[in-house]
Amino acid sequence: MITLIAAIGKNRELGKDNDLIWHLPNDLKRFKKVTSGHDVIMGRKTFESLGKPLPNRTNIIITRNTEYKVKDCIVANSLEAALNATTDSNPYILGGAEIYSQAINIANILDLTFVDATLEADVFFPEIDLNIWKETSRENFKADDKHKYDYSFVTFKRT
Ligand SMILES: NC(=O)c1ccc[n+]([C@@H]2O[C@H](COP(=O)([O-])OP(=O)(O)OC[C@H]3O[C@@H](n4cnc5c(N)ncnc54)[C@H](OP(=O)(O)O)[C@@H]3O)[C@@H](O)[C@H]2O)c1
pTM to 2 decimals? Predict the structure, then answer.
């Protein structure tokens, strides 16, 4: 069971200049809760944007650089190698755009936060083909003093 987890804007924006483009504390809290205890797989740029391994999770970093090493992390040279390296029956794929665009073809679940904003971005989540993906749950939240935009937690399962 492979899950892609991402927060995306109205135009599927993901980030800009190798960073996120919003600050949504409830999304970060939920991300931590959902992924803790699991293996998390991410591209080298996303890992470098985080700056350090995510605690309480086995971090698997994908790069084509065969010399790349990071303390306490597993390094894999392809998405397939990353999936071979995991012993978790439900690993989470954390992005970024390059990795999502490859992994959406093999994922079973999309765990998405839809952010009700249109923002400048240089990386985007791939198109979600609704002939393939069926929405199975949704929770909607309004903007508040800690969250600049409305947002929704939405799960899709492969049909
Ligand atoms: N909104 C969200 O939920 C979310 C989540 C994650 C990331 N982001 C944002 O997304 C951006 C980063 O995404 P990105 O697309 O630029 O980078 P990325 O997907 O994180 O990493 C790309 C790197 O992964 C490696 N890679 C990709 N495909 C590979 C393959 N098949 N085999 C081996 N290595 C492979 C390459 O590393 P090497 O160059 O080292 O070979 C490539 O440069 C940032 O702005 C970040 O903030 C947003």
Answer: 0.98
